[in-house]
Amino acid sequence: MKKAAALLLSAFAVILAILPCFTVQAEDKYFSDEQIAYYKGLGLKGTTVNVYNWGEYISDGSDGTMNVIKEFERLTGAKVNYTNFDSNENMYSKLTGGGVSYDVITPSDYMIERLIDEDLLLKLDFSNIPNFKYIADNCKSLYYDPDNEYSVCFNTCRTVLIYNKKLVKETPDSWSVIWDEQYRNKVLMFNNSRDAFAIAQVMLGQDVNTVNEQDWNDAAQLLAKQKDAVNPVYVMDEVFNLMESGEYAFATYYAGDYYLMIENNEDLGYCFPKEGVNEFFDAFCIPKCCQNKKGAEAFINFMQEPEVAFENAEFIYYASPNTEVINNEESSLYKNDALYPEVIPDSNHFKNLPQNILELQNTLWSRIKSGQLSVNSETDVKNIYIVSGALAAIIIIILIYSFIKRKLKEKEEDLSELYK
């Protein structure tokens, strides 16, 4: 019995000794050993990457999705400070206002062109961004960065008109409906000047990149008429809750966001208005205030890992420039009509504008929103002028009358003296 027990103990010891040889390392949920080794080997542990991105614009781990920031931190050991902006103009103001240090920003096409013109971006080292190979050809060498020096496309989309089927009588096909007085207080309008002006410009048949000041004044007058007619609410990210609530008839926003909204309100529809829409590209760039360029390029590269790009597209519902995502038949957005339309809607592209036009645009936009250009305001001003003119005329008449009366009195006194 003792001999048998000794043999069993010896066998057990041998099994314990050789067991590690048969242990299989658990596979990573998202990434291969090669990918993990690549990011670990970058030497970013303990560094910080400051990312400035649009709101609602990255997969954050909710609803079982990939938490992109956490995964980048896990693979690299770096810390990501992630903050949001809601318009290109706000991002530009923050960037040029001083006192900030961003490593990665995601401006849109025309803003990238402006930042390049003003020498505010660093050129990218594409040897640190090998995943650039996944970017589709139609998202490379674009008009705002023709030599692919400053940007890597992140997402692309088009503006759309979103409508509430319960509040709208007929399916719309034109931007003109958001001037219809029957929808007063039921319209949500872009709260950024470029997109808002573009709608008025295509309504007027203008070039959205016109440098003719009168064109901008005419477009401003049309937007002022909209304010008088429907009293729109100017919004950006607030559009989600407001349109999903079912209280508003129309919203001007972006095609991808429409699909996020219908998850919470199935009564919403969309159209590409016949006058034309804006097709835009958002891209990763590195501003000159960057303090961690290597970390920034690693982050840009990470965002184009096929697994990351797929998860991100599934979360934000914008068209991806990543070919591994575009051609993935398992994607919920595969050949989506709004994001990857077979029939391309009439589309415009924003370009950088000269300084005098930018200043005029900003001035006009402020006056539109404040009501200074409204027809009612102009009428009030005219009425003030009329009343003021009438009062001035009365005063002049009184003064003339007083002058004549005084002169007549003086003449009577002179005559009296003469006949004494």
Task: Tell me what you see in this structure.
This protein has 420 residues and is α/β, with parallel strands linked by helices. Helices cover 43% and strands 13% of the residues. The chain has helices spanning 2-18, 33-40, 68-76, 88-96, 109-117, 193-203, 213-230, 239-244, 255-262, 293-303, 306-316, 323-326, 355-370, 375-418; strands at residues 48-54, 79-85, 104-105, 152-164, 187-190, 233-235, 250-254, 268-271, 277-284, 347-348. The N and C termini lie far apart (167 Å).
Number of strands: 10
Indicate the overall shape: elongated
CA-to-CA gap between the ends?
A: 167 Å
Unreliable stretches: 1-8, 18-25, 378-385
What percentage of amino acids are in beta strands? 5-15%
Content-based structural category: alpha/beta
**Number of H- or I-type helical stretches:** 14
Query: Major sheet: size, sense and barrel closure?
Result: 7 strands, mixed
Helix content, binned percent: 40-55%
Q: Measured on Cα atoms, how large is the radius of gyration?
A: 32 Å
Roughly what is the average pLDDT, rounded to an integer? 89
The helix-strand sequence is HHEHEHEHEEHHEHEHEEHHHEHH
What are the defining features of this structure?
420 residues; three-stranded parallel sheet; disordered N terminus
Structure in a nutshell:
The protein is an alpha/beta fold and 420 residues long. Helices cover 43% and strands 13% of the residues. It has 14 helices and ten strands.
